[in-house]
Design goal:
Blueprint: H1 5-13, H2 21-33, H3 35-42, E1 48-49, E2 52-56, H4 66-83, E3 90-95, H5 101-114, E4 118-122, H6 128-137, E5 142-146, E6 155-162, H7 172-181, E7 197-200, H8 202-216, H9 222-226, E8 230-233, H10 243-249, E9 255-257, H11 283-292, E10 296-300, E11 307-312, E12 318-321, H12 323-340, E13 348-353, H13 359-367, E14 370-374, H14 378-387, E15 392-398, E16 402-405, H15 414-430, H16 435-446, E17 448-457, H17 460-476, E18 481-482, E19 485-492, E20 497-500, E21 506-508, E22 517-521, E23 526-531, E24 537-546, H18 554-571
Parallel strand pairs: 3-4, 3-5, 4-7, 8-9, 8-10, 13-14, 13-15
Antiparallel strand pairs: 1-2, 2-6, 5-6, 10-11, 11-12, 15-16, 17-24, 18-19, 19-20, 19-22, 20-21, 22-23, 23-24
Helix pairs in contact: 4-5, 4-7, 8-10, 8-15, 12-13, 12-15, 12-16
Length: about 575
């Protein structure tokens, strides 16, 4: 197999004494036995996407290893010294249950300390939201979490948080990437100063739990809490370190843990994917719920920023809610609580994203607060909090099963979101309703919105090219009609331009540039195409809606909306 010269040049660099013997031996073995894998390991440098840097673990520039993460950390150290000149620099580091996460976290800590930066390193795995909380709690300049979120077991990743506890956003991200790219691997200082590394655990845990309970509980009567039967699974991840303690602290005593999934394990042995977006991931939890007649199932991904929720439907069967549904239930509840407490003054906002349900805009209008809509990723919601200090943040989310309650944690936070959703479920049950009934009530009040996500995986170099071509086709040959509905507007976030196809008017889009394309249809449907920033996938987000006149019509209207979604999928060849 012929390998391009630019790839071979990179390979040869990794065969120099800058890299350890083990790394060199693996590369030499790949050169003879796995040239295709060698090419994939070196054909590009791993990039920062919507959730930091994620990739397969292994040797090479396109892999997660001590050198690619060491280079990131050296670049970040150099940048921080320049930006915060003269300050005593501090960073916090956490990691999840993945293979090598603890080792890689120590490598990152070593590099920071070698550069004279004080490091607070968690002594064992912890949820990502706890790291975001810790950055602000310990007044750090930055934070790192080693996680690949819900990706498959062979992945790991590196997420960077800034002083505000939110992930890196422009302009810092671009500036830091420039510094990293200007470095040679030989510039990395791995020589740790152990006196600058302080291990943290119990004190931070207790502060995080206490803050979560203060932020996400609402004077729910104890008998309502006692009457809610909860099934919880950590899907072999880190949330086991926080959620049982937080629920107990908040007064929830009937919490039934899925024992087979309670042990942290980077192989995620009982699931195909440790992602609560996938219905299969909560199968064991739902089986337990049916066995003990539980009211609600809650589960998290490995780093505990995403949550999955299943509740009893109108027939009493367990039904998995999607991220848009949990988001509107939680947001509507928070808005109502704020309204009752007399805290809505017109200086508040909720947050959402361009691929999430439009119902969030309707909720904001009804409660007379602002809805700020950003690109996919919670770093943009955190940026709104930083950019608009005169406004108070109530809560916000995105369709990918993430939610943020208040601003104590500046990233999606399954710990607070699970406590909040249990509060809503307990209060609903106590008043003779249910979480599912509350969702139907919202559909009557604001219109029945139904969303569906299609994810198409395309791996490797060829896959990346196929995804690129799909986006080019959608841009250069835009669809004029989809499922018998005219396309009335197209927004292209890459060019920052939108076009009203009914009158030909063009308009500017003020949201930062991103490779996203949105089609709006004349019946209010919305289709968004977006390549994933962290996985080899292209995603199509479909949203349809129509009025719901009464609760009794729920199932009939749901069928009509499902037919609309099926027609769009069929016409766009997405099945």
């Amino acid at each position: 197999m012929h390998i391009d010269k630019h790839i071979l040049d990179k390979v040869n660099e990794w065969l120099t004494p800058t890299f350890d013997k083990k790394t060199q031996d693996i590369i030499e073995e790949m050169m003879t036995s796995s040239p295709k894998e060698l090419e994939d390991s070196f054909y590009k440098n791993l990039e920062f996407g919507t959730g930091g840097m994620r990739g397969v673990m292994g040797v090479g520039t396109n892999r997660i290893n001590k050198y690619t993460l060491g280079k990131n950390t050296q670049g970040l150290s150099n940048y921080m010294k320049k930006v915060f000149a003269g300050e005593e620099l501090k960073v916090a580091i956490a990691y999840d249950c993945r293979h090598n996460s603890d080792t890689l976290a120590k490598v990152v800590a070593d590099v920071f300390s070698a550069n004279g930066i004080k490091v607070f390193l968690f002594s064992e795995m912890r949820p990502t939201p706890e790291l975001s909380f810790t950055v602000r709690h310990l007044d750090c300049h930055a934070g790192i979490v080693l996680t690949a979120s819900h990706n498959p077991p062979e992945y790991n990743g590196y997420k960077v948080y800034w002083q505000d506890g939110g992930q890196l956003v422009p302009p810092q991200d671009g500036e830091i990437i420039q510094v990293i790219e200007s470095l040679q691997y030989s510039d990395i200082n791995f020589d740790a100063n152990e006196s600058l590394i302080q291990y943290i655990d119990k004190d931070l845990d207790e502060a995080f739990w206490k803050s979560t309970v203060e932020n996400a509980s609402f004077n729910t009567p104890q008998n309502a809490k006692d009457n809610l039967k909860i099934v919880y699974t950590s899907l072999h991840g880190t949330s086991i370190k926080a959620i049982p303690s937080v629920l107990a602290l908040a007064g929830y005593n009937d919490v039934n843990i899925v024992k087979e999934q309670a042990e942290p394990d980077g192989n995620f042995p009982t699931v195909k994917s440790p992602n609560p977006e996938e219905p299969e991931a909560l199968t064991m939890a739902i089986e337990l719920a049916n066995k003990i007649n539980a009211d609600i199932v809650v589960g998290t991904d490995p780093d505990s920023d995403r949550l999955g929720v299943a509740v009893r439907d109108l027939d009493g069967k367990m039904k998995l809610l999607n991220g848009n549904q949990t988001m509107v239930i939680m947001t509507a509840f928070l808005l109502e609580q704020w309204k009752r407490a007399g805290k809505i003054t017109g200086k508040e906002f909720i947050g959402s994203t361009i691929v999430s349900t439009p119902m969030m805009l309707d909720l904001a209008e009804a409660y007379k607060v602002e809805c700020k809509v950003g690109l996919t990723g919670f770093k943009w919601i955190a940026k709104f909090i930083k950019d608009f200090p005169e406004l108070q943040f109530i809560g916000g989310g995105e369709e990918s099963f993430g939610y943020m309650v208040g601003d104590n944690v500046r990233d999606k936070d399954a710990v607070a979101a699970i406590l909040l959703v249990c509060e809503i479920a307990a209060l609903a049950k106590a008043s003779g309703s249910s979480l599912f009934q509350e969702l139907i009530n919202l559909s009557v009040d604001f219109g029945f919105y139904k969303e569906h996500l299609i994810s198409i995986t395309k791996k490797g170099i060829e896959g990346a090219n196929e995804i690129k071509q799909m986006m080019i086709d959608l841009r250069e040959n835009p669809l004029k009609e989809i499922a018998n509905q005219r396309v009335v507007c197209i927004e292209d976030y890459q060019t920052s331009k939108g076009k009203d196809l009914m009158n030909g008017d063009e308009f500017e889009i003020s949201i930062p540039k991103s490779n996203v394309l949105i089609y709006y249809l004349e019946d209010g449907s919305k289709i968004c195409a977006r390549p994933s920033g962290t996985e080899p996938k292209i995603k199509f987000y479909i949203s349809v809606n129509q009025p719901l006149d009464s609760k009794e019509d729920y199932l009939k209207v749901e069928k009509q909306l499902d037919s609309k979604i099926d027609a769009i999928i069929s016409e766009m060849n997405l099945n």
